[in-house]
């Protein structure tokens, strides 16, 4: 094999390896950014739901979502779900569809991202929960959506 042929083969191999490493790095970077944005969106949705929690003078709790949000969450075909629980773990408000088990993060931290499996739908769900104080009471709004 001539010198020029060996140089061409080695440069081709080097270029292929460099391209594979570059595309691999881009894939990992894109996956991390996508996961970050998905988690950030879920936390913001949980914060948005929490902003509509109210308590009445008699101590009862209600969630007064605007019509567009209520329609988006409560539509049977919607991919998004929510649940609001009080500090004892009781459901205060829900979009009506299963949102997964209550996690042990109520005492641990203000925000938490978690994943769970919905057997009936044969799908994995990703959720975000935040702790919210309304008056003297604590609530745990959670937003959920299917994993991609």
Describe the protein's topology.
Blueprint (H helix, E strand, L loop, with lengths): L2 H48 L2 E3 L5 E3 L3 H8 L6 E6 L4 E4 L16 E8 L4 E8 L1 E3 L2 E10 L2
Antiparallel strand pairs: 1-2, 3-4, 3-8, 5-6, 6-8, 7-8
**Which blocks of ≥5 consecutive residues have pLDDT under 50?**
none
- Structural class comes to alpha+beta
> How many H/I helices?
2
Give the strand content.
25-35%
Q: Mind telling me the CATH class?
A: Alpha Beta
Second CATH tier, the architecture: 2-Layer Sandwich
CATH superfamily: PhoQ sensor domain
Q: Bin the helical content.
A: 25-40%
CATH topology: Beta-Lactamase
Q: What is the H-and-E element order?
A: HEEHEEEEEE
Number of beta-strand segments:
8
- Count of the domains: 1
Give the overall pLDDT as a whole number: 80
Q: Report, as a whole number of angstroms, the end-to-end distance.
A: 50 Å
Q: What characteristic shape results from the CA principal axes?
A: elongated
């Amino acid at each position: 094999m001539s010198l020029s042929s060996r140089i061409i083969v080695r440069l081709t191999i080097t270029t292929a390896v460099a391209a594979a490493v570059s595309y691999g790095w881009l894939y990992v970077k894109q996956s991390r950014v996508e996961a970050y944005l998905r988690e950030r969106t879920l936390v913001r949705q949980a914060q948005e739901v929490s902003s509509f929690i109210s308590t009445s003078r008699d101590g009862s709790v209600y969630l007064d979502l605007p019509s567009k949000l209520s329609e988006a969450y409560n539509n049977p075909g919607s991919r998004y779900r929510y649940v609001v629980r009080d500090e004892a773990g009781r459901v205060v408000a829900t979009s009506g569809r299963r949102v997964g088990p209550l996690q042990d993060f109520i005492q641990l931290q203000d925000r938490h991202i978690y994943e769970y499996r919905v057997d009936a739908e044969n799908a994995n769900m990703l959720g975000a929960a935040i702790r919210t104080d309304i008056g003297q009471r604590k609530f745990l709004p959670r937003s959920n959506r299917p994993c991609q």
